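## Example record

The block below lists the input lines for one assembly entry, exactly as stored, with component labels intact.
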Amino acid sequence: MKKSAFICIVTVVVMLNFLLQKNDTLGYFVEDATSSLVVKVTWFGLVCAPLLYLVGTIDKWQNGSYLNQLFRTDKLHRIVISTYFINLFHVLGIVLIGLLINALLTGNTGSIENILNLVGSYMFYTSVYMVLELLFSSTSAVLSLCALLLIVALGKNNLSLLGSITFHRNTSIYQTILTLFMTITIMTFFLKKLNQKDFYGKGI
Amino acid sequence: MIKVEQATKKIGNNIVLKAVNLDFQEGKIYGLRGRNGAGKTMLLRAIAGLIRLDSGRILINNQQIKKEISFPKSLGILIENNNVLPDFTLKKNLQLLAKIKKIATDEMIDDAILRVGLNPNDKRKVRQFSLGMKQRAAIAQAIFEKPDLILLDEPTNAIDVEGVREMRKIFDNEKRRGACIILASHNPEDLNVLADEIIVMTEGSVINEKQ
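Predicted structure tokens for the full assembly:
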């Protein structure tokens, strides 16, 4: 049920976004501030959709079967790195499907810089989501992330200075490197917090 | 082997462990007795490294949990309800866990499954097991790597009378192998039959150590 609902939402939002976009723009990047509300809202849905895959991926560590893996691991960083890359792999997989649909509908495949930019953005947001779910809950994490992206979508200010974080297509290399550095910092913080976390199990 | 020194843990305003001091030695079974909320499970979690103490410390072979080591190096636990992944067979579950430490061979896995009274060649997913079989599967998961320390919270729940006798025999064999077993149970018979020493807890404190 969860999966089918998710796929339906993603499909509708992806189609709408790609059909509404201008010909020269890759759907995943923010349009200028003059774009219509419908375009902004579908952009928000499009960008959020892959991140919804992450819901529950950290909460599950409270479950007995995952705790049994956790305490057997000598080096926690290995489990953190593998969890991060598995999550990122799935998120980028969904983005890739979106890009393929985009290419089929509009013929716009985007440049290598655009794709790297997009990968940088999702690397960052995947780490942000994981930390939020570890510190709070999946609901708080989703709401916080959606609020952040909604601000980016509906904000009247040009946030191009923030580069990949705000899904701007014209992002310079130093901004992408900065995003990567921030992602590593967030995941280091995640590792520290995971080591300090209390595991009370599910339903307790 | 295990030294619990002044272990104290608060959750909100509740003190769930109050300055607990205990020693556990290898080759013995320790029974934890107490009512719901007495702190038995919380003590097991603290020893397993699943929670951090607010004060005090727990040493496993002279290494402090959460300081020098994150978790005990050789541990088998049964604390949660869902101890194995429901969408895999039991053997596949144990093979996946075995890949982490690379201690257990396929023979050890088959042996543990047989010992708990299940079939290593059973193609059913754990999801399709009865409650008692799931509990047996969880016990197999806790013992298959022959750990030095085994923490069991209500291990005989949902297991039939004959099965309880089999499980007691398994725990006794693990003790003879040299493992230290800490067992929390509501069933006084489990503790009376198995435990070398019984520790009584109430409201987070040890009120009667080593009966």
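Chain A has a mean pLDDT of 81. Chain A is about 65% helix and 0% strand.
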